[in-house]
Design a protein that fits this description.
It contains eight helices and two strands. By secondary structure, it is mainly α.
Length: 198
């Protein structure tokens, strides 16, 4: 499902008009926010289409990548992870991880075995078939990423990462979410602008 249920973004004039009715609306902040979601939708679609060609969803791919990126063992094999670790790495619930691992195990891409350190726990590991699939998927995946970022020069990419990191910190700050719930959000408007009031 798209993050933004709008194909065409509102014009700046429309945001200015809306701000007259809703003084809390910061037109420039709303414009950036909408562009961020719209771009995220398009980028997600490009990546999702490529994964679908390999019969993968974003969720299944995320689990495979989390396993592939885990620490290597002495023999060079990828160390297995617990469902709890996978949930933490991928940012989804344990219930979601269980469903994803079920389908990956069914397709022979991962295995579930008792954890040697605690037989009551399960360890999820990447199979040779799973590693083989990733080696088939990743070249085109990385090419798509490079193509999507091609319009940006190196310094622009660094600037974008820096700016997005600022937004990410704000979005993941519990204090910000709590203040929003209590109606205490304080927006910082760019210099030279002011709130619109009706």
């Amino acid at each position: 499902m798209p993050l933004l249920m709008l194909k065409s973004l509102p014009r700046h004039e429309c945001l200015l008009e809306a701000a007259r009715q809703f003084p809390d609306l910061d037109p420039s902040a709303a414009a950036v926010f909408l562009h961020l979601l719209r771009t995220g939708d398009e980028v997600f679609q490009v990546v999702e289409s490529n994964l679908a060609a390999h019969h993968l969803t974003q969720g299944r791919f995320g689990v495979l990548m989390a396993l592939w990126g885990s620490c290597r063992q002495a023999d060079g094999a990828v160390a297995p992870l617990s469902p709890a670790q996978l949930a933490e790495h991928t940012g989804v619930t344990r219930a979601t991880i269980t469903g994803l691992v079920d389908t990956l195990e069914r397709d022979g891409l991962v295995t579930r075995t008792p954890d040697p350190a605690d037989r009551r726990m399960l360890a999820v590991g990447l199979t040779l078939q799973g590693e083989k699939l990733l080696k088939q998927v990743l070249p085109s995946h990385f090419r798509h990423i490079a193509r999507l970022m091609a319009p940006l020069a190196e310094n622009e990419r660094k600037t974008l990462v820096r700016l997005l990191t600022k937004v990410l910190r704000c979005a993941s700050d519990p204090a910000v979410l709590a203040s929003e719930a209590n109606g205490q959000v304080r927006t910082r408007r760019p210099a030279g602008t002011r709130a619109h009031h009706s």
